[in-house]
Design a protein that fits this description.
elongated; 6-stranded antiparallel beta sheet; Hsp33 domain; CBS domain Like; 6-stranded mixed beta sheet; 10 helices; about 280 residues; 2 domains
């Protein structure tokens, strides 16, 4: 199960999204050694990025990042219009769950960047951080930037990332706050176990079996981290031929760590010959 599904309360002006990814999430955090707290923060940022990218109306990608002076200096997630994701966390030491969130993230800013590959233009916005945490931050973001009252539930384990987003539609024909309050009260009974283990159909029936809900087809979410060989060859070229060859002679081969994919790219003498011959 690696999918996101939209749903609609047909008799209420309320909509939502249900996310549950297993193998794609496992691939993204494999061998990273993230602590429980870091994994949860990374999961929260990833879930939000996927849900926002699921609404993109053009080809491109959405990048969400938190960069600052805390123990975690960088949280980064990229999701394309066709829901291919990748991401990473950069931290200078391990973190246990007792550490205060402000110490974890420091004065880091949350930046959302929307890139349109058709126009080759980017739009960037800053997301003010709520001291109560990232979930509350994202609820504020939806409510303030999109004028949509929103509630989020997100759970991140080693095996699964799951989330539910519920939003009150703007310009609602129904002005009954009781409807919104009732739906949120029911949703607040979600447990982490149910969020991670139940399908969208099962979870929504358990929570809202007296409501009429339309559940839309699932969209697949993939983990994909291309090597971007040309990007790393440009790094070698920008180093300069003499410096590159001196470095190769000193080390036997040149290695570049692709941090976001957690892989290494290796360059031999033959690679240098080709890079500098074709780029002159």
């Amino acid at each position: 199960m690696n999918s996101i599904r939209r749903f609609l309360f047909k008799e209420l002006d309320i909509r939502g999204q249900h996310l549950s990814i297993n193998s794609s999430w496992q691939q993204m955090i494999e061998n990273r050694g993230y602590s429980k707290l870091v994994r949860q923060l990374f999961g929260e940022l990833s879930a939000l990025a996927i849900m926002l990218a699921n609404g993109m109306k053009h080809k491109g990608k959405l990048t969400m990042q938190i960069q600052g002076d805390g123990i975690v200096s960088l949280l980064l997630v990229e999701v394309t219009h066709d829901l291919k994701m990748r991401g990473m966390v950069r931290s200078n030491r391990s973190i246990d769950s007792s550490v205060d969130l402000d110490k974890v993230l420091g004065k880091g800013q949350i930046v959302a960047t929307l890139y349109n590959s058709q126009t080759e233009k980017s739009f960037q916005s800053l997301v003010p951080r709520n001291p109560e945490g990232l979930i509350k931050t994202f609820e504020d973001y939806f409510s303030q930037s999109e004028q949509l009252s929103s509630k989020l539930w997100i759970s991140s384990t080693k095996n699964n990332l799951s989330a539910v987003l519920i939003q009150k539609l703007p310009d609602s024909k129904y002005k009954h706050e009781d409807d919104w309050g009732r739906v949120i009260s029911l949703a607040n009974t979600i447990t982490d176990q149910e969020l991670c283990e139940l399908s969208a159909e099962s979870l929504l029936f358990r929570l809202f079996n007296e409501e009429i809900i339309e559940l839309f087809p699932a969209e697949e979410v993939y983990y994909e981290c291309p090597q971007e060989q040309e990007k790393f060859e440009k790094i070698i070229f920008d180093l300069g031929e003499q410096d590159a060859r001196d470095l190769l002679k000193e080390r036997g081969e040149i290695t570049i760590h692709n941090e976001i994919c957690d892989t290494h790219v290796f360059f031999s003498e033959e690679d240098l010959d080709r890079i500098f011959a074709t780029r002159k």
